Amino acid sequence: MALWGRRFLYLNRDLTGICSPAFRCLSNNLSEVGRLDTPKLGGNYDTGQLFLHKVFGYRGVILFPWLARVYDRDLPNKKELGFIRDKLPEPDLPTFSNNVGAPAKEIKGRTHTYYQVLIDGRDCPYITHRAQTESVTFLGNHSENTRNLYAIPGLDYVAHEDILPYSTQETAPLQHELFDKFLLYAEGQDPPFVAQDTLKAWQEKNHPWLELSDVHKETTENIRVTVIPFYMGFRENQQNNVYWWRYCIRLENLGEATVQLRERNWRIFSLSGTLETVRGRGVVGQEPVLSRDQPAFQYSSHVSLQAPSGHMWGTFRMEREDGYAFDCRIPPFSLDSKVEEPEDLFIT
Questions:
Q1: Cα–Cα distance for residue pair 300/12, rounded to 1 Å
Q2: Is 327 exposed, middle or buried (0-12, 13-18, 19+ CB in 10 A)?
Q3: What does the buried/exposed string (b/e) look like for 176-204 if buried means 16 or more CB atoms within 10 Å of the residue's CB?
Q4: Cα–Cα distance measured from residue 197 to residue 211, given in angstroms and rounded to the nearest whole number
């Protein structure tokens, strides 16, 4: 839990872990983190800015920003467009309203800032039940098996509004193996940590596989689903290339009633003309509960196609404590490949 008094920031760890800053409780197990700074309403945060995640409560540091296009289906200015209507029969088309068979909608993208961040390793044990800390993955070498995926521990993407900035007198305020490789303490600077050449080289070399470009959002019965897809590259598999994407999903309960995710139902359309249905219990082996105290859950998964592009959409089956169940829509999103040849991640 995050608490602050007289603008000093504290972390409270109890049996339930780190709680949302909006949730307050009494405890003697407090540790001072730093001094809370005023959140920025305009402009971006700088590299080296320390922060507390507004939703998940972990400590982190900003590496660099991404300017993303956010497609929010809860906002107005929607236009009619069947983006795959010419390729799928009518019963298989995704519907984007409460009306069965409603036409597809084109959503106007709005630019928004997200940040590439490092997560403090001390906080990872307290958030793994609500947010994966190894969600950023990449492919191995071309010579390796297609299914070999590797993870970068403690790397995340955070929206501007989820940043609670703070400052501290510590010269090593974050525990992460890449912190000292990427950032250098610079006394008198604000923030007092600046990018090293290693961070700049790493960002430039891996830009195609780290880049956050599109974000998709939709809310059903107070459950907001956010999807961020990432192209990972391709690998040769016999006669065909296999194209890989990872996608990060965040579910957030905006209401008062506690709900639990019971099932997932995906539709995956490939440019080759195939349409696949994937159903199963929960997500990543869990059936997360979204409550008022812990309203959000975030995870990442992967999909591969034998075509350079496709689309995904679907639903999550949600259940309230009184037994009422409903389907929460997953906003449709594109799986787009890039021209660049994949390269190995560079960390020295």
A1: 27
A2: middle
A3: bebbeebbbeeeeeebbbebeebbeebbe
A4: 19
Note the pLDDT tens digit of each residue in 271-324. 989 999 999 999 999 999 999 999 999 999 999 999 999 999 999 999 999 999
The residues, any chain, with a CB within 8 Å of residue 228's CB and separated by 6 or more, are 68, 157, 212, 214, 215, 216, 247, 248, 249
Q: Is the peptide bond before 39 cis (omega within 30 degrees of 0)?
A: no
Q: Are 33 and 18 in contact (CB under 8 A)?
A: no
Structure tokens at 208: 């195609």
Distance CA 59, CA 65 (A): 17
Q: Are 27 and 13 in contact (CB under 8 A)?
A: no
Query: What one-character DSSP code corresponds to residue 238?
Result: T
Which tens digit of pLDDT belongs to each residue from 135-179? 788 886 655 555 677 888 899 999 999 999 999 988 889 999 999
Q: At 90, is the secondary structure helix, strand, or coil?
A: helix
Per-residue pLDDT tens over the stretch 33-51: 889 999 999 899 999 999 9
Q: Give SS3 for 127.
A: helix
Residue 294: C-alpha distances to residues 27, 300, 323 (Å): 18, 19, 20
DSSP 8-state class, residue 17? B
Residue length, the chain?
Answer: 348
Q: What is the mean pLDDT of residues 55-83?
A: 82
Rounded-to-integer distance, Cα 145 and Cα 28, Å: 51
Q: What is the DSSP string of 246-313?
A: EEEEEEEE-SSS-EEEEEEEEEEEETTS-EEEEEEESBTTB--EE-SSS-EEEEEEEEEESSSEEEEE
> What 8-state DSSP symbol labels residue 14?
B
DSSP H or E segment with residue 199: helix 197-205
- What's the whole-model pTM score? 0.83
